[in-house]
Amino acid sequence: MGFFDGILGRSKPPQADLDVLFSVPQAVISMQLEGFVPTGSGSVCFRDMEGQADDAVMADAEQIITSSPGSTVARSDDRFGFHWLTVTRTDADVSGLVTDLHAVNSSLADAGFGTALLCSTFGFTSPAGRPVGLVYLYKRGTFYPFAPETDERRDNALELQLRGVIAGDVPVEPDLTKWLAIWGAPGLA
């Protein structure tokens, strides 16, 4: 941060700690003990950057992921204009999924697109059979649960219950106003 940035109150966004994603398998074990089942699907959400350089990085990441057996990759855009790259593992191997999503995130960050990263999601099915997500916020370096219901409503009680389940395994976002509703996220609709 420069001198004028300090005077004007500007700050640099924090760097995302991508390695914290490797703590997700422990959180998954805790969630499984409570009846949540991993779907084998996870996504990376990012803003489009100018030009097509990020497209080339995404194509390289897709090639790396699909070179391992059992992984498929799909790209999509949501109604808010954000881009999603979704990885699905047929074996539902959480460690492999974490490695795949880490590769996507690292590829974007290493190519200079780290500020475009918004979140990563890991999909689950609740004991009641509904979709639930574990969401990692890059700019905060924290996780939170997201339990969508129909008509763009959330199951806040379930989200708070899950916060208690995963709190010892991953850094949980303490500010509930940062627990964003990611309507239409792949695997969570």
From TrEMBL:
The record ties this protein, via InterPro entries, to: PspAB-like (IPR054383)
Name of this chain's protein: Uncharacterized protein
Question: From which organism does this entry originate?
Answer: Aeromicrobium fastidiosum
What phylogenetic lineage does the species belong to? Bacteria, Bacillati, Actinomycetota, Actinomycetes, Propionibacteriales
